[in-house]
Each structure stands twice: as structure tokens, then as C-alpha cells.
Design brief:
globular, five-stranded parallel sheet, 154 residues, alpha/beta
Length: 154
């Protein structure tokens, strides 16, 4: 099965914070909206991003009418809808808007679980815990433990 996804800035930033951008290679095709790349670039391009295989794509974020979302999140949702790919985001409002639009969504914990299930990585539990302890992502202990439980069930 071929997996394709489009990412907003969150997973790119959070995986970079734990030196784990390679986890995005779990997806056979990774799309990054130019708006998202510019957003990430404004904070300094994360180390390892140049080693990642991805395609920069244009999107008309105005097609997603969600005023509480930033342009990158709207662009990523528009691409996910247009291309029928998974949206990668950790933003709750973006997750809800995408789900309402019929888009499949994965956050960073889900990406780790998927990579583990596809045998792309080991040490999945420690990476889930690192997301909580070493990144700017707010993630509850409950979510981390649920993610670890998902790994144990595989």
C-alpha cells in the first residue's frame, strides 16, 4: 500500500526538535505546501529537512474557510482534500476542520505508531516520550500513553 501525506508546520517542527525528521519517510509521498515551507523557514530551516524527500506544492488556502486556522494549515487541508491524502498536523482546530471535510488526519504520535507498524523505525516509545518532554508540542501524558498502548497492540 502506498501512503501519501501533506504536512503543516507542526510535525516538521516537532520532529526536528527531537532530531527525527526521518520519521516522515514513513510516507511514500510527502507534500509540503509552499506556505508551510515559508512558515518553517522563517524560524530557520530545521536541520535534516534538506535530507527529507518531499515535494513543494502550491495551494489556494482561501478555499478552506476556517478563520481560526493559519494560512499553512488551510493550504495543507486544501491539498489533502484535492489529492485525497492524509493530513499531518498537531493542531486541534486543523484536525477538526480536516475531519469535518472528510480528510484522514495523523498527528506526530500517530506518525510514530504508523512508522513502527510499517517497520520503518524502532525506539517508538522513547520518541513518543521525547515529543512530550523535549519539544514545543503540548501533548498530555494520556495521549502519549495511548500511543504507547497502540504500539503494544501491534
Amino acid at each position: 500500500m502506498t501512503l501519501a501525506a501533506v504536512s503543516d508546520a507542526g510535525p516538521l517542527i516537532h520532529f526536528a526538535e527531537i532530531d527525527s525528521l526521518e520519521l516522515l519517510a514513513t510516507f511514500d509521498t510527502l507534500l509540503v505546501p509552499k506556505t508551510v515551507y515559508e512558515e518553517v523557514e522563517s524560524g530557520g530551516v530545521p536541520a535534516g529537512l534538506s535530507d527529507l524527500s518531499y515535494e513543494l506544492v502550491e495551494a489556494d488556502e482561501r478555499r478552506v474557510d476556517e478563520t481560526e486556522l493559519d494560512a499553512g494549515e488551510r493550504a495543507a487541508i486544501a491539498i489533502a482534500k484535492d489529492r485525497s491524502v492524509v493530513l499531518l498536523t498537531d493542531d486541534l482546530a486543523a484536525r477538526e476542520a480536516a475531519t469535518d471535510a472528510g480528510v484522514d488526519v495523523h498527528g506526530t504520535v500517530g506518525i510514530i505508531a504508523l512508522g513502527y507498524g510499517r517497520k520503518v523505525l524502532g525506539k517508538a516509545k522513547s520518541r513518543m516520550r521525547a515529543l512530550q518532554r523535549e519539544t514545543s508540542l503540548f501533548i498530555s501524558e494520556t495521549v502519549v500513553e495511548r500511543g504507547i498502548q497502540m504500539l503494544d497492540e501491534q
